[in-house]
Amino acid sequence: MIKSSRATAISRRDVLFVGGVTLSGAAVALLTGHPALAAKHAGGQSAQKDASVINTALALEYEGINAYTLGAQSNLLEKPVLAIAVKFQDDHKVHRDRLLSVLQTLGAAPVKEKSLAEYAEELEVSKLKTQADVLNFAAGLERGAVNAYLGIIPSFADHALAKLAGQLASDETVHFAILNQALGRTLPPAMSFGV
Which of 104, 125, 175, 180 has the most other CB atoms within 10 Å of its CB? Predict the structure, then answer.
């Protein structure tokens, strides 16, 4: 289930008017930790559409988790860099779990994760020969994830799910920024995401 870090401290006013937007019954139920009630309110075509979009995001998280596994197994990363990669992978696992929880609440089947070998082939990790290659590869995936999350925000009928996508996009942005710093690159202009 989606849990707000302030779940126990959220006032009725905070829940009903987040950023000036009135939330649906399903959104309020999800934000306050009542998934059964959310499922009751989230029926219909909009819930099916939201589930489809969440499954797209879940597929990206599976890819991220496996990409970091492949990067770690490459033996190309120095110990401090490997520690960061493992942390980022852990973040992607948290994202995965949040998305799986939403799908369960919506009563939708999650997309299946591929095998590690399939991800290795699709992502062409055999081309990675240096630590810089791995970092560039990871930065590209993180930037793609930022843009994907920003791109799906308007697709949600449920504003709580749009907020979740925004939260996940911010995590991916942090990953991208840290990887860019590790590569000695400056950050791109602020408006370079989501375009």
Answer: 175
